[in-house]
């Protein structure tokens, strides 16, 4: 009986939420005089209260659960409040950008320099937008500038223009400029006013109840919308006067409603529960107090009318009086009343924070302390694990592995059902590791036609399992499987996938007998198929299966000691720590030989190689909680308690996902960031980089593992969590995280913030889950998005959706949205009002994104099809975007290359297509590629087939596209200028590792690329150039490893062999020259002693050096050659060659063999003979018997095989793949094919003259392809007419 995992820890996520809120507030609050609104003072008070309570939270001692629960609730309330204020500021910034873009359009062309103000906060009056009118789209334009908070856990902000004319003084000061003290303060620090200025009456933030989707905005009359916009503040002031009466009427109507809300708020108590009620009832909601969240639909418009009626005012109470100062004063007074509502909400939060802070101080005897807003933040506890057990490295299980492999390779004759092999043992004893150990064994891999590994968790998403088995195309079968039950679906796809094959199916971590009974009945496979299950309890299988089992116990003796020592010391030498070795032996005795416990506790010990730390672990009271010898919970609890706090939060959050869930590492990190769990104080570190460090730390401590998937696209991308550690995570945050597995979602605890709903559960109750911050739904659903008021993470992947509702815009706090795996072809425009959104993942079948997607100014990660991304107009507004693989220049507004100007965060790879459409060198300068310091791979591509007249400014444009100096990979395709750019010189790009030059046909000379110090790859294609290397350098191409010439001629100048002190291509590993009319100036091939791969085809200058140079290139492992004049080939070369391809060597008739060379020394395992006579003579038996792959292609004169060649075929005992194709004269195949014991793949294609096929083929054959041969013979092997031995081949294609 295992001990309980761990008592729940209420308020576990309160500290990171508090820190995130503090950081965000600090980014807005600077030492400034309080504004007329007083909101700055309220925010300062809130900030100080947050700091006070954060200082009192104990790092080690556990507080009262009730107190921590209160802290949790108030932390979430404060976070929501700040988030809503930021949303308002973000909305203003988006509207100002839209207005600036519209103004630029009317003045003729788009000048992107205006966006520099929004990014940097520079006070450029000429470029700052004036009070904006209504832009295109769904929301109107506000006037006050704001700050877009880059929600990366570090609290950074993006200050923007205040937008109130040149000086930003608002309505009253537009005509006389910005000369007052307030304007000066705004110039000093715009970001400090972000959350405050959006509530000032001077900012003109109003609401027209007749406008459904427009909120906090000024709607211009229709006649002003058609006017050309001018940039002057005076013109816009006149425009503002024309609509002021309309504004005042709404403001006066709104007073009654706000006062009612304020009175109701005063009547509430100050408890955490009522505080949450306040947050949901009085926040800026979608249909009442916060007009920014109203939606453009009939229901919400009706709500707006009802709100006006409730206020008790009418339009007749006021007359239209344009432009009077009284109107401005009245609007300011009523805006302040609205501001007071927000201040009251802050006040309640501050009172709760102060109450909790006092309670914590009293409980922990903490003295009072003064708070300083500039106090340096506490650095998170971090440590580094130097090494861990390598993937696939197993200690002490050789005997069990051999036993399991023998059971798997047993033919199973006489058994009707597929045999089941069960591996039983305690949790953490290594059942999964043993199964993986055998699963990856070469003998097992070769024996089975197909292998499938499934984590048999009862709540795992079947679509993901199907992806493991079938690959990505399964996601297109949504409609087909939407009504199927889980096990029925899995059983169905397995039967289809494994039909006619000898398969191995592993069901890992089985807890229900239903799994084994279902899959044991699969009879579609060949004899010899096996099913392996791992389970803790024998009750999950019947009595018959229990007789065919392996029972694992803990590791014994030296095996466990060696394993634990590796876990505890890593790369350190244990002999240097004798005292620690003694303590470690005592700790190891408590682990009872459990490998998982050894990894968890070993990682804990390795974090601090200090005797005191190790003794504390040894003496921990948690060891006494074990209820049986194999109880792993004490060790896992011990490891968790000693994790740094940031790892505790991230590990515990993983309990919001189902058991056995495959974590996409990048997605997991972005989810952590969205929840505020990734917090870095280092300005030069992205939150994604910090999150990656968190993942690496959890992997090194064995809290996350790399699973064993067979599909290559799943490898290294996904991690999993051991089921016992998942149980620990669940127990830690039981009150906040819930994985719901039932069909109907019943009454859910109000404390739940993170919810994952299992397959086919009813989601009717989700409308009541206003406090949820995470929702993961991978099933059919009907979610009311209006009820998810606090949601930050929404994962709807593989949930059978065909349309995303417009109500998605209600989720104003949303930062992460995953829609992958659905049949969604288009997205609603309302999505573009989610201004906090950081990560958006859409299905690949969605080829167009909404027009307003560039309003998502906090978007950091956009996963969509290349086509969808390429058609985003004005993508340059997404300044936080981290990846943009392709950018297509078009002669369309919003697709100019200048869009890249402010996208300074782009990193990784960037490909710029259609550069011939760049308008001018000024546009090229606007892109500022040189400033993209995070770009490592830059591809500059002109269109190949559009043969426009050479532009006179083509060279200037290329010069203006200078890459950043840290660039590692550069590609230039089809540039038609006359010469290479000056920045390609050595001093400009010292970090270049790879250069690809293609189709630069007019270039005549290249700069001295051989002087680039770290250049490893040089690829040139379709050119005719001279490479000038000079003569002053001692070593040329000092780091070059790969050199490619394709369809070109090249001359290297400056390479002289007379100076023995100079080195050339000293590290060259690969040389390829294909279809080159001239290759001059290179050192002789025989001097390239480090060469490992050589491919020479249709290149006379290098062909002349063959084959003599091959005798001295003893490092050569791969040779591909096409030399029509070649008459002989030295057989001894095959002693070190592994791959050999001989193409179009029609005169090659002699394969030489040295008499003193002993047989059996060949390393050649792959041979391709193309358009060349087959080898004959002693070379066959001397060097060609170890082949594993043989390809015979396009030998027109081959009619049959000689007796010697047939005997050679018989001796190819290692041959696994054989392909004979395009041999038009071939009449007969060698009958010896049926004697090849290792043959797995056979392809006979386009050999129409063959009269007979072999009467049998080896039983090892897994794949047979016969195409384009004698129709009569093909008919004998097709369908039901085929011989039985053909039907048994699992993969075949005959036509």
Nutshell version of this structure?
By secondary structure, the protein is an alpha/beta fold. It contains 36 helices and 41 strands.
Structure annotation, total helices: 36
Number of strands: 41
- What is the SS-derived class? alpha/beta
Which sheet architecture does the biggest sheet show? 17 strands, parallel
Report low-confidence residues grouped into runs of 5 or more.
Answer: 31-36, 107-194, 199-329, 331-335, 369-384, 458-484
- Kindly provide the radius of gyration, computed on alpha-carbon positions and rounded to a whole number of angstroms: 36 Å
Euclidean distance between termini CA atoms: 61 Å
Percent of residues in beta strands? 5-15%
Describe this structure in words.
The model is unreliable at 31-36, 107-194, 199-329, 331-335, 369-384 and 458-484 (pLDDT under 50). It is globular, with a radius of gyration of 36 Å. The longest helix is centred in the first third of the chain and has 42 residues, at 65-106. It is built from 36 helices and 41 strands. It has a 17-stranded parallel beta sheet. Strands 10-11-12-13-14-15-16 form a seven-stranded parallel beta sheet, covered by helices on one side. α2 (39-56) runs parallel beside α11, α3 runs antiparallel to α11 (325-364) and α8 packs across α11. The chain is of the alpha/beta class and 1295 residues long. Helix content is 31%, strand content 13%. β36, α33 (1179-1183) and β37 (1189-1193) form a beta-alpha-beta unit.
